Amino acid sequence: MTFVGKILVILIMALSLIFLGISTVVFTTSQNWLVAANAQKKAAGELKTKLDDANAKVAAAEKDLEAEKVKYEALTKQQDNQIKALEAENARQQQEITRAGNEVAGAEATAKTALAEAEARRNEAIQLREKRAAVEDQANKFKLKQAELFDRIRELERIMETANKNNADLKDRVARYSTLLRQNGLSEDITRVKGTEAAPPVVGKIKQVDPANRNLVISIGSDDGLSVGNELYLFRQDPRPEYLGKMSVTIVDPDQAVGRVIGGTYQGKKLREGDIVSSTINPRG
């Protein structure tokens, strides 16, 4: 039974006693006083018994109330302790959340920085690869050019060796021709020596040209009917036929001759090996 229920029981018992007293007064006015007195005693005894029982119940209720109060205080204290513990745990968790949030923010900032650095390094690596590819391409071109230059050097060395041999041979021939001319009472000045006849119908090719584009060696000589002073036309057939100029024969050998360009080539064009020399204006190669 709860505390409130016990209070209600006591109130009911008190009201019962009051109503009993009223009814006793009413009864005594109408019956024998002795009988009424005995009845009242008996009723009073019963009431006293009930009152004692009620007091006992009230004492028990008070005792229970005190016990409940102790239990309530203990429970309240326990709950307060739990609330404090929960509040402390909540504060700790909030601190953990704040710390974790700060760590996450720091990690995000670090990650962004790392990503930016990685992107910069990737772009730098791409640029370095592109530069390396360009350098390697340029190096390969240089190697090819170097190989071409080495080939050209070897070719020029061979040409120089041949030219030196031809020069030595030509000097020897000039010396012999000069001796022969002096012995025959002729001038040694080659420019004064003219061919007595026009060049025969011949067609040949240029074998060598000096860097000045003035003197050249051709593939036809005295065996083909050439003589010093003959004039020949210079042509080129590839990629299209074109006139280059004229030359005068200055030295003649059986299988080749040396000549000099008259005046200069047409439009200053460079002569080259393989160009046509002919005694006629319409050569047939």
UniProtKB/TrEMBL annotation:
Coiled coil: 37-180
Protein name: Chromosome partition protein Smc
UniProt keywords, alphabetically: Coiled coil, Membrane, Transmembrane, Transmembrane helix
Regions that span the bilayer: 7-27
Record bears the keyword Transmembrane helix: yes
Origin organism lineage: Bacteria, Pseudomonadati, Planctomycetota, Planctomycetia, Isosphaerales
Domain of life: Bacteria
